[in-house]
Amino acid sequence: MAARAVTIQEVARRAGVSPQTVSNVLNNPERVRPATARKVHAAVDELGYRADAAARRLRTRRSDTIGLRLAPLPAGISGAILDVFLHEITMRAAQLGLRILLYTAADRDDEITRLRELVASGDIDGVILTDTQAGDPRPAWLRDRGVPCVSFGRPWGEEEAAEHPWVDVDGAAGTRAAAEYLIDTGATRIGFLGWPDSAGQGVSRCAGWRDAVLEGGLMNASDADELVTTCPDNVADAMRAATQLLTRHTDIDGLVCASDSLAFGALLAVGPKVRVIGFDNTPVARAVGLSSVDQRIDLVAQAVLDLLVKDGRVVAQAAGSRVITPELRVRSAVIQDPSVLGSDA
User: Fold this and answer.
1) What is the pTM of this model?
2) Residue 217 burial by CB count (10 A; 0-12/13-18/19+): exposed, middle or buried?
3) Which end of the chain has fewer CB atoms at under 10 Å, N or C?
């Protein structure tokens, strides 16, 4: 037998406020003092309250809607990858009869606040998380409230212990494929341009390149360290970093980059004399003929929904993972005179 729906009056009594105050907290939070809002949210969480509007729509406690944070667009060309994911996940969800509800949040704590509102109002059945890392509080918060979730991105450092399903791209396999292609086509001195102080994804992408050049017999570990340089993920810094790397090592004839932003900057700096490969296969890479590793976001989106949806319904599933193998897209860059684009490209 279905559980009796909790009323707004019960929430008000538990929080020690009026029903109108509860309504304001849920619908017009700017009208309520933070201390009062915290009491109401605590009562909502404790009682499992769902707003009446949602209850009318969800007699089976379903909205057929999945929440997804619309993150701020990162700097650099590779930020477009989030747009691709959004398109793919929305299209594939629609094919299953589901909707994607986008919400914004400044950080993880702010996101939990927003999720609390969406869960309380019955607007979402599940959540797709992005930008995950070790110690992320969001999966546990959702699990404690019985809200299914899956993350695009592994919980770095906690992959085996993760209690929620996740999908990620094998970055090491991508950069390994890029370096091996350069080796197979005659490159003998291949550098790597990555991100400073990077963890997780950045380390993985560097590791794939390193494994390829060491196993290919091009250099020893000490030599490999000398051929790695890092900079922020933007074109201008990448131009400077690539120029400095080639000034120190004039024999470099190949360069694997952790992103298309870095690769495009390197391409502008070195021109056709060094073969450059990026990562993300962005529209810019395709437009200028830049070789790049395709994350296969279509397969990522499908895997995310496979772990979150069963028989057309959003359901909680046991922790598990899917790792997508990316694919190298080889092209011949058309920029013969990088000076025509200028240093601000």
Assistant:
1) 0.79
2) exposed
3) N
